[in-house]
Amino acid sequence: MSPTKTVPVVENILKANDHLARANRELLDHTHTVAVNFMASPGAGKTSVILRTIEALKDRYRIAGIDGDIATTIDADRMAAAGVHAVQINTGGACHLDAVMVQNALAQVDLERTDLLIIENVGNLICPASFPLGAHLNILIASVPEGDDKPYKYPTMYRGVQAVILNKTDILPHFDFDIDYFRRGVEALNPGLAFFPLSAKTGEGLDAWIQWLTGQVDDFLDHRTPWF
Amino acid sequence: MHELPVVQSLLEITLEHAARHHARRVVALNLVIGQLSSIVDDCVQFYWDILARDTMAQGARLHFRRVPARFRCRDCGADFALDESRLLCPGCGGFHLQLLQGDEFRLESIDIEEETTSSLQAMAKTESRFQKNL
């Protein structure tokens, strides 16, 4: 038998995705397009928050969308109905978007004429965290019915995002949801993280979120420097 | 879960490094996986056995070294292990934490069988002949 030896590798296992995410980012920087990746569990209200966001910002920015779903085009259709060019990515059962899928979708967006690109990830609180897409901002949408313990149960998902939205605050009176406990869990791993409790249904709290997002996007478009 | 793309990426990295070291065969992979990285060992091995078939890494064993998550409290400086139900500093009750370890997800090293001495000599000979012809 031949002798064996150990040779060092020391590489991130998902380096191929990370490289492509960087390439996506460079392309977006080049066309001065700000990409925002929305992640959440199924039913948290990603599409509702996104539609509210589009409605508030469509006169200010030229917006396009990329929508990841297991099989249907329901969400992309809703974005299109809001007047936004939306590219559908059907992941064919995959539980997350990855940088390759986004790279392919980017080719179908007129980036030169897009200021704000909204990416709706597949509803999942585990997998999307491992696959950076090259977006400038990663936003996690939580919702009241999910319970206040989610930041403690899914710490990986809550790390590495730039803002957390807590949706469906209009039903807080009907749930035992301790908002301070939730917020402590969010802040534990992200000190000073932007936090926006709101209701996409009633519109309560929406202004603070829109104001923050506008500030971030304007900063980028004015200075054209990558943030994170 | 996403073990399939993980394994595809793993195989790519492995074969690249094996070729660089003139491996004849890859015997084992040594992986370092943090507690916060979601991956199922058995599932990875299952896909590996399928995807690595007919490559020089066929039959390689996957060794997982798990790294427990540890935090440092930004308020009092204490180091402590992850308690999933609390995410609080056990010393001072502070909740501004810095992750020290536990999100690793890397291929640390591979164990390879090298080309035998005689085949290496043959390669060296070919190379010198090639250079002479230049």
Tally of helical segments of chain A = 8
User: In one word, what is the shape of chain B?
Assistant: elongated
Q: What is the CATH class name of chain B?
A: Alpha Beta
* Largest sheet: number of strands, sense, barrel closure of chain A: 7 strands, parallel
CATH superfamily of chain A: P-loop containing nucleotide triphosphate hydrolases
Count of DSSP H/I helices of chain B: 3
**Poorly predicted parts of chain B:** none
Classify the fold: give the CATH topology of chain A.
Rossmann fold
Strand content of chain B: 25-35%
Could you say how many structural domains of chain B there are in total? 1
Mean pLDDT of chain A: 90
- The CATH architecture designation of chain B is 2-Layer Sandwich
Mean pLDDT level of chain B: 86
> Can you tell me the CATH class of chain A?
Alpha Beta
The strand count of chain B comes to 6
Which class best fits the helix and strand makeup of chain A? alpha/beta
Q: Spatial order of the strands in the main sheet of chain B?
A: 2-1-6
Low-confidence stretches of chain A: none
Estimate the global geometry of chain A from the Cα principal axes: globular
Write a structural description.
- The complex is a heterodimer of chains A (228) and B (134).
- Chain A is an alpha/beta fold.
- Chain A has a single domain (15-219), classed as 3-Layer(aba) Sandwich (Rossmann fold).
- Chain A contains eight helices and eight strands.
- In chain A, strands 4-3-5-2-6-7-8 form a seven-stranded parallel β-sheet, with helices on both faces.
- In chain A, helix 7 links the parallel strand 7 and strand 8 (194-197).
- The longest helix of chain A has 18 residues, at 206-223.
- Chain A is globular, with a radius of gyration of 18 Å.
- The relative contact order of chain A is 0.18.
- The mean pLDDT of chain A is 90.
- Chain B has 134 residues and is an alpha+beta fold.
- Chain B has a single domain (3-68, 101-133), classed as 2-Layer Sandwich (hypothetical protein PF0899 fold), CATH 3.30.2320.50.
- Chain B is 34% helix and 31% strand.
- Chain B contains three helices and six strands.
- Chain B has helices spanning 3-20, 41-51, 117-133; strands at residues 23-34, 61-67, 70-73, 79-81, 97-101, 105-114.
- In chain B, the strands form two sheets. In chain B, strands 2-1-6 form a three-stranded mixed β-sheet, covered by helices on one side.
- In chain B, helix 2 links the parallel strand 1 (23-34) and strand 2 (61-67).
- The longest helix of chain B is centred in the first third of the chain and has 18 residues, at 3-20.
- The A-B interface holds A 1-17, 94-96, 98, 126-127, 130-131, 151-153, 155-156, 159, 184-185, 187-189, 191 and B 1-2, 5-6, 9-10, 12-14, 17, 21, 23-25, 27, 30-31, 36-38, 69, 74, 82, 84-88, 95-97, 99, 103, 105-114, 116.
- Strand 1 of chain A pairs antiparallel with strand 6 of chain B.
